[in-house]
Hints:
Nucleotidyltransferase, domain 5; five-stranded mixed sheet; 10 strands; globular; binds 5'-O-[(R)-(carboxyoxy)(hydroxy)phosphoryl]adenosine
Amino acid sequence: MTTVLALETSCDETAVAILRAGDDRSQELLASEIASQVAAHEKFGGIVPEIASRNHLIYAPQLLGRAVTAARIDFSEADAFAATSGPGLASSLMIGASIAKGLAIGFGKTYLAINHLEGHLLSPFFHGADGGEQIKPNVSLIVSGGHTMSVLVRGLTEYQLIGRTLDDAAGEAFDKVAKMLGLGYPGGPEIEKRARVGDSNRFDLPRSMRDSENFSFSGLKTAVRYLLPKIEERRLTQAPYKLDERVLADLCASFQQAIIDVLVTKTIAAAQKHHVDLVTVSGGVSCNQELRRQLGEACRRAGFDLKTAESWLCTDNAAMIAFAALLRLQAGFQSKLTEEIDPNLALVT
Ligand code: KG4
Ligand code: ZN
């Protein structure tokens, strides 16, 4: 039996998970606790790093207690303590990494520093309570608030970058456009809700860098910014705009479709180029039902299987970090206690 306790504190979610593998390598998620800070940051329209790290300090010990109680284990029964070591906010990463290192030192166990992006990347192979499965070669689309990239995955730790955003991440574009429209944070779910009843053909918005493997979303965001005063026949400086419900729904649908078109087209092209059978998608933006539906359709037409992470595993959580840590531990990896957090940690170097 191998048991891993993992912490995730890279941004504004504090999370702790405990994952156990049996000797036959079957897995069981014994606990997954999460404390969302959305309410604390919402009024600022984005994440305030100092508030995030102060809250991690408050929530992490509470979640650790809840997790071991739910898992009915003692800390001493864990074989390894893992934490997200980057990328993310330095002051937030430090909290989880320090706690995991402290536990590893205190109980004389292994420490594992996990790349947050690897957590997302592997999450489509994890099925929650029933544990996970073997990693198969795939083209992986990671779409979150901080990152947008496609990666060729040959197996655990064998990652090759195909393309990445040169400016805003897809989730960041959702958040920024939502803010412009006077909608709440995080912007993705707010825009998706309105887009459901909107006409995605109403506004003609750009699909950038069509012929590249990289992504760019800041032009799309700027296009929305310049469209708003035209719709309202008001001056640009008069934001935030109060659009009528119909226009708002159509604008949300047109914006969301512009993002989906780019993500789907580039992912299918990458899967064709790299001759894989499987496409995976993960990260907060992959909660988007319309993205899942259209990517599923496109994969089916092009003859690829699609694996999506379960919705609760798309946004930040510690179960995906525990899964990555368990696979790494089983493959013989461990981290030095001197390994530092890295806010700019790359998935592929
Ligand atoms: O993976 P995640 O929780 O955090 C990062 O690692 O960044 O992703 C958060 C991002 C936010 O930008 C949020 O607006 C976006 O995921 N998001 C969505 C949806 N749900 C969350 N974007 C589009 N549609 C959604 N339903
Ligand atoms: Zn994330």
